[in-house]
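<discrete_fold_record>
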Amino acid sequence: MSILNRRAFAGALAMSAVLVFGESAFAKDFKFGDLEIIQPWSRATPSSAKAAGGWLVIKNGGETPDRLVSATAEIADRAAVHEMTMSGGVMSMRALKDGLAIPARSEVVLKPGSYHLMFEDLKRPLKQGESFSGTLTFEKAGTVSVTYSVEGMGATAPGHEGQSHGDMH
């Protein structure tokens, strides 16, 4: 088989994997005791940005509730758990001083316009296609290391440049 045919075959094989397995074939999930951290992601930032958001899904398969109390990211000096809300057409954002409750046998979705991680005092701009590491600390489960994928500036969900996930809540 020629080099050109091998490359075409490899490309076809990769596309087949995407068609068969969808985006989850490439998603990074992290299992941690009863907790599962699904698809941590962020957005690319302009060179002058001082902050970035982080989003993910936390599934608690256990019988005991837990609480996300803090986070870190290698690309920022500080990270905090935040909530964004709209009231009377005015958007407000606040740090959740007591963290974010993760009910037993449930999931909590951190997504744009809602709960999120705020990475502050960025050490460098984030570029689409790269990844960075961080930690999530839970009141009961402890600390888990995760890796965030960086999507495009207009992304509204992992793997969907500029599109909404629709079925995520």
Remarks:
- The first helix runs from residue 3 to 21.
